[in-house]
Write a structure and sequence with these properties.
By secondary structure, the chain is an alpha/beta fold. It has 6 helices and 10 strands; from the N terminus they run ααβαβαββαββββαββ. The protein has one domain: Vaccinia Virus protein VP39 (Rossmann fold), CATH 3.40.50. A 7-stranded mixed β-sheet has the order 3-2-1-4-5-10-9, with helices on both faces. β2, α4 and β3 form a beta-alpha-beta unit. The radius of gyration is 16 Å and the shape is globular. The two termini are 29 Å apart. The mean pLDDT is 94.
């Protein structure tokens, strides 16, 4: 078991820099994939766990999706909360209370590897308990096949401290088994490159779409 990662200061400064220059505003390839393939549909309610600077939340909202965007960094949520179709607030998404809303989709891109495994377990259970029947969880996460895995300071349990913050590289097989044990039905499960190209990098990541039976 790993303790909670104390990276809030790092991410607050990181997003301060992005907000200062107004970039990036282009949605992620995963967000585009979900919209272009009608996986997330207009007028649904989607919760984003760890929205960062809000580029995907904004993209979803412009496609007539109601978004609840959660992030530990208040500098981003304050801005997003002023936008149409977005409700945003600062919080640790691993410690959310039960919600009284009918949630259609939970979206997490590059955030599950930023939390300890015990927090991941709690979050996935929370997602299952709060999704509507047939509701979806859509995840992209770094795995042990990522080129960054093994760089920096080894914190144990596939956690590495590199570039001043933590990453926990997920075992794809373990993650699949965890979802199935909780009760999710997996419709897409692919570990590959081509999902998250950035500049001259094209890391292997895991893309998952699963539903509450």
């Amino acid at each position: 078991m790993n303790p909670k990662f104390n990276d809030k200061e790092y991410w607050s400064k990181y997003y301060d820099k992005l907000l200062a220059i107004g970039k990036p505003t282009e949605p992620s390839p995963f967000a585009k994939y979900l919209i272009e393939n009608n996986i997330i549909k207009p007028y649904q309610l989607a919760i984003e766990l760890g929205c960062g600077n809000g580029r995907d939340a904004i993209f979803f909202s412009k496609n007539n999706i109601k978004v609840i965007a959660i992030d530990q960094c208040k500098n981003t949520t304050t801005i997003l909360n002023q936008l149409e179709n977005i409700e945003s607030f600062p919080a640790d998404f691993t410690e959310l209370p039960p919600l009284d809303k009918e949630i259609n989709v939970v979206y997490s891109r590059f955030t599950m590897h930023s939390i300890a495994e015990v927090e991941e377990n709690n979050t996935l259970k929370w997602v299952f308990d709060n999704l509507e029947n047939k509701g979806l969880i859509c995840i992209e996460v770094r795995t042990t096949k990522d080129p960054l895995c093994g760089k920096g300071i080894d914190k144990g349990n596939n956690v590495w401290f590199y570039n001043n913050h933590h990453r926990r590289f997920v075992s794809a097989n373990n993650f699949r088994n965890k979802l199935l044990q909780i009760g999710f039905k997996i419709s897409l499960f692919e570990e590959n490159n081509g999902f998250a190209p950035h500049k001259d990098e094209d890391p292997i990541v895991l893309r998952v779409i699963a539903s509450k039976k």
